[in-house]
Design a protein that fits this description.
The complex is a heterodimer of chains A (about 375) and B (about 190).
Chain A lengths: L12 E5 L3 E2 L5 E2 L2 E8 L9 E5 L26 E2 L4 E2 L4 E5 L14 E2 L4 E2 L9 H14 L5 E7 L1 H12 L4 E7 L7 H15 L17 H15 L2 H8 L17 H16 L2 H13 L10 H4 L6 E7 L7 H13 L4 E6 L13 H18 L2
Parallel strand pairs in A: 5-8, 5-11, 6-7, 11-12, 12-13, 13-14
Antiparallel strand pairs in A: 1-4, 2-3, 4-8, 9-10
Chain B lengths: L3 H8 L6 E5 L5 H10 L2 E6 L2 H9 L4 E3 L14 E7 L8 H11 E9 L4 H8 L24 H11 L2 E8 L10 H4 L2 E7 L1
Parallel strand pairs in B: 1-2, 1-4, 2-3, 4-5
Antiparallel strand pairs in B: 5-7, 6-7
Classes of the chains: A alpha/beta (about 375), B alpha/beta (about 190).
């Protein structure tokens, strides 16, 4: 058993890109910045890089902490670090904040050089494929010709899958965790309710709330509360909160009474403090639009014919947001193309959130697979 | 050293074939076939530890429950579908045999022969058989559908499967030609729909 530790202090970096980026929507972004972090060392052959793609609310801060802020642990710190499945003593790991984000990369809250004011509602919609194109620019900037693996969970899984289609020669492995080949109508429905919560907040001001010195806090809070319900399973929620009351007995009031209410409100409040509403809108739209099969008359197998990577696909038994059946659709399409794929359906009570949690079977699969990746690239 | 049944299975696989190994365990058979016959293919396994072992061994493994069938696989999408020492532990015995012959152009089935004379002797002396091929106590065995060569061939007739070839081997790994249902401990069948 290898012993694992934390990365310790990490520092974000920024890259500026001057060449215009053509977006799927038809618009062009004249220039943009990406904020990213790297851990470990790129080997002489430049073959040991792993790109970590973040999910809806993630950032470039994947692992480690910032100096002076011991509570700033990265969102996938249990997965990435010395001796962890994504072993930073063997791999050079890149985490990047996606375009449209609100943690440093160019997004709706950034200043539009044309006007000197925040982009706001004028920031273009971006797709998963656009993100991947921007990430490829970052790979060029870091002089990484080919990633040993591109990986992510949920929306991050979609980026890993998109990488295998957009840049088939630039990744060895795609690790697709708790993903889906497209959103279901139900998924889009949940996203739309979340967006409506934000856009109908009186403080939204058509997306230009920055100028008014307010944020659509109530809307963001609601959006996040709704999201959290879909990230957990019924069982996990019941196990964690049950019907526990904060007080002794029902108070017959609309104040917070049940533990679950308290939890959701807390998650909503935390989120509203750190996340930009326009970014949330853009990210959920990127989710809705993702559908590689649409390029091939709805035939996912035909759409994945371009892929050359080897795949690891993982799902979690109680994930009802992106259920195992959705991952099996991806596996089936990969099989139809005789591509190299392993698939594990991890037993978990945690629902969609399971991809962020430590779980013995999950980590054993990741360790075994990444060991194989490391061997292949001589890491 | 290569287990005699692995070598026998490899004998029936054409080089470069596309194979599906149902109940692939730690991926030993696929690893062997990749080296000996440059096959491509996938293993199916349900136990998490074995899935991990297969991945570690560089085998493409899909964690799925065979009992629910092979509905995710198209007709004749594999050259050969292998069911190695798994049949006897399956509940849906008949269904999996039919399904493997739907998905594969050919099937290879191996199982411990319950008719092997040492098994018969143990039953005659009043105990459930235990052997190298069936190392379990009656109360903790995963084997719920043990059969003899005659039984298996009967089932093949019932489901309309043709036996193309059969190899029966002794515990020492030697081919058994005379009285196979009595002298063979392990049966390896090549079948087609």
């Amino acid at each position: 058993m290898k012993s694992s530790r934390s990365l310790g202090h990490v520092t974000p970096q920024r890259a500026h890109f001057d060449a215009p980026l053509q977006l799927a929507s038809g618009t062009t972004l004249a220039a943009f910045d990406l904020v990213y972090e790297t851990y470990g060392n790129l080997n002489a052959a430049r073959s040991n890089a792993i790109l970590i793609c973040h999910a809806l609310s993630g950032t470039h801060h994947v692992a480690g902490t910032y100096e002076g802020d011991p509570r700033s642990t990265g969102w996938w710190d249990n997965m990435v670090g010395p001796g962890k499945p994504v072993d930073t003593e063997r791999f050079f790991v890149v985490g990047v904040n996606n375009l449209g984000g609100c943690h440093g990369s160019t997004g709706p809250s950034s200043l539009d050089p044309a006007t000197g004011r925040p982009f706001g509602a004028r920031f273009p919609f971006v797709t998963v494929a656009d993100w991947v194109n921007a990430q490829a620019r970052l790979a060029d900037h870091l002089d990484i010709p080919r990633f040993a693996a591109v990986m992510g969970g949920s929306l991050g899984a979609m980026q890993a899958l998109q990488w295998s289609l957009s840049y088939p020669g630039r990744l060895g492995h795609a690790i697709v965790i708790a993903g889906a080949p497209s959103l279901s109508a139900q998924n889009i429905g949940f996203n739309e309710v979340a967006r409506q919560a934000i856009t109908t907040d009186p403080d939204f001001h058509g997306g230009d709330y920055y100028a008014h010195g307010v944020i659509p806090e109530r809307g963001l809070r609601l959006a996040r509360m709704l999201g959290h319900i879909t990230y957990l399973s019924d069982d996990a929620m019941m196990e964690k909160f049950g019907r526990e009351l904060l007080g002794e007995r029902p108070r017959f009031s609309l104040d917070v009474e049940f533990e679950i209410e308290s939890y959701l409100r807390h998650q909503g409040d935390k989120f509203a403090e750190r996340f930009d509403a326009n970014t949330y809108l853009i990210m959920t739209k990127a989710l809705d639009y993702f559908d590689p099969a649409a390029q091939a008359q709805g035939n996912l197998s035909a759409a994945l014919a371009a892929a050359r990577a080897k795949f690891l696909v993982l799902s979690f038994t109680t994930d009802w947001r992106f259920s195992p059946g959705r991952s099996r659709e991806i596996v089936k399409a990969l099989l139809d193309n005789s591509l190299s794929v392993s698939y594990a359906e991890i037993e978990s009570t945690q629902g969609h959130d399971a991809f962020l949690m430590e779980n013995e079977d999950y980590f054993a699969v990741m360790n075994a697979y990444l060991e194989r990746v490391a061997r292949e690239v001589g890491a | 050293m290569i287990r005699a049944d692995l070598a026998a299975i490899a004998h029936w696989i054409s080089p470069g074939a596309n194979v599906l190994d149902l109940g692939c365990g730690d991926g030993q058979l696929l690893t062997y076939l990749q080296q000996a016959k440059q096959v491509s293919g996938y293993g199916i396994e349900i136990e998490p530890e074995r899935v991990v072992a297969s991945i570690r061994n560089g085998v493409n493994v899909l964690q799925m429950n065979l009992e629910t069938g092979l509905s995710g696989f198209d007709d004749h999408s594999f050259d050969t579908v292998i069911l190695s020492q798994t049949l006897q532990a399956m509940r849906q015995t008949e269904a999996i045999l039919r399904d493997m012959l739907r998905v594969g152009r050919e099937g290879i089935v191996t199982f411990p022969n319950f008719g092997y004379w040492k098994n018969r002797v143990q039953v005659l002396t009043g105990t459930m058989p235990k052997s190298e091929a069936m190392p379990y106590e009656w109360y903790d065995t995963p084997n719920i559908h043990l059969c003899t060569l005659a039984d298996f061939e009967g089932l093949c007739r019932t489901i309309g499967a043709r036996v193309i070839e059969r190899i029966v081997i002794s515990p020492e790994g030697r081919r058994v030609n005379a009285f196979p249902n009595l002298l063979g401990s392990l049966a390896i069948y090549r079948i087609r729909a």
